[in-house]
Amino acid sequence: MIYLRFYVMFFALTNFSIVFGQGGKKMEALKKINSVSQAELYIQHHGPTSARIGNFSRLIDSIEYKEIEANYKVGDVFFGKKATYKILGNQAEPLFRCQYIVFDGTKMDKSKIDSLRSEIIAKFNAGMPFNNLANQFSMEVKPNGGDSGWFHKSRMGEAFCKDLTYKKMGDIFLFDNVAKNKYYVVLKTHAELYADSWVYVAM
What we know:
This protein is α+β, with helices and mostly antiparallel strands. The protein contains 8 helices and 7 strands, in the order αααβαβββααααβββ.
């Protein structure tokens, strides 16, 4: 998920001449997208770099959420520092939280990673706190005991969150993101939490 800071230069879509003056093709495309399904079809047709779908959660993105709530409505377009956003709706969004240890497959052989992950699970089952294991083994710059904090599914990916959803509290499991060469040991520490969220498409 991408975090934004709002600036005074942001303004709602109240005058089509102003909006279209900011870039014709992009605004024409946004004008035609009025739902998540339409945004997904647009991305499928034009490629993953053409647009993105995201959320501003009341819990995680409280500043952005309140800014939209106070100044915009569904269907409005506003301009950010790096993209143009259209609000598609408001919904209860699932948020996730866990502890994890990650290994970078570009810096370590998969066989070594698998050996370390087996060692981690054995030590955890023998009573070693996951915090200690994360600080010892994780290849993140600041592992912070492996605590992910609350996150949108866009941060870790739909497959990761789907696996996490099906696990019970206290379950420890492996997850491989082969496409990104990231290999995880994951501990489920929190149940999913639903929070109000503004859904947007950005270009």
